[in-house]
Amino acid sequence: MLGSSSSIIRRQQFLIRALGGCFKKQTHQRFTMQSMMSGSALEADALSVLRSITPTLDPTRHKGQAGKIAVIGGCREYTGAPYFSAISALKIGADLSHVFCTKDAAPVIKSYSPELIVHPVLEESYSVRDEDKISISKKVLAEVEKWMERFDCLVVGPGLGRDPFLLDCVSGIIKHARESNVPVVIDGDGLFLVTNSLDLVSGYPLAILTPNVNEYKRLVQKVLNCEVNDQDAPEQLLLLAKRIGGVTILRKGISDLISDGETVSSVSMYGSPRRCGGQGDILSGRQVIQ
């Protein structure tokens, strides 16, 4: 019985940590204190948190009111990442989840789940002649832009790859999302893109960056022109978010740190001891419906 309760608590703590990127310090402190209490007390509090960030079930609502999200990513090499991101949003409670990917990736992503709406509109350099790049880029942007006003949030980067032409097209998508005031979560190769083109997100308060250890290191080197300082991690993160200009940064690690350039919060709940591929993609999809 005790073993069963412990496994339930661990799963709940993992969910809380995965979903808790935007928790305030008070919430984190409450969970830390309750982790010393009985399992039933922690379980009740865990349920209240999960309910507070999950769309409510309401018979008067129609399709789409609980959230419509889009993932921009998926190429020849990477098809799992956009799937994990898009499907996790549905699992938490979003109504509709779209994936905008390359033509090579689309059949594979479609085969993973019938729940996803897959748009094979992105292009990579190998399939585009130099003289056609301008016209095809405009076509790609037009295909995404006609859907933009329907979305509550974008996730940019899971499985995107680093093809130069593809990244140029995605830069245009981010710019249009910003003009339309659509929130954007930047993860994976999307972070590679914005690290080298900070103007895409600089000064945009509806942007969330979710770097892992290596991605955070590149951001710090680019923006602060120094190395990562783990001794003063909160202060450095605060300065980084402020320098970029109002974005929110979720620095993933043993203890997750979150800052919008004004405050810093920490989430140190128990998570999976494994650090396998796909966990960050799941987190990116869960953030879009908070």
UniProtKB/TrEMBL annotation:
It catalyses: (6S)-NADHX + ATP = ADP + phosphate + NADH + H(+); (6S)-NADPHX + ATP = ADP + phosphate + NADPH + H(+). Coiled coil: none annotated. Residues 46-290 form the YjeF C-terminal domain. GO terms for biological process: metabolite repair; nicotinamide nucleotide metabolic process. InterPro entries: CARKD, Ribokinase-like. Transmembrane segments: none annotated. Its EC number is 4.2.1.93. Its cofactor is Mg(2+). The keyword Magnesium does not apply. Keywords: ATP-binding, Kinase, Lyase, NAD, NADP, Nucleotide-binding, Phosphoprotein, Transferase. ATP binds at residues 252-256, 271-280. GO terms for molecular function: ATP binding; ATP-dependent NAD(P)H-hydrate dehydratase activity; kinase activity. Catalyzes the dehydration of the S-form of NAD(P)HX at the expense of ATP, which is converted to ADP. Together with NAD(P)HX epimerase, which catalyzes the epimerization of the S- and R-forms, the enzyme allows the repair of both epimers of NAD(P)HX, a damaged form of NAD(P)H that is a result of enzymatic or heat-dependent hydration. PANTHER family: ATP-DEPENDENT (S)-NAD(P)H-HYDRATE DEHYDRATASE, ATP-DEPENDENT (S)-NAD(P)H-HYDRATE DEHYDRATASE FAMILY MEMBER. HAMAP family: NADHX_dehydratase (MF_01965). This is ATP-dependent (S)-NAD(P)H-hydrate dehydratase. It comes from Actinidia rufa.
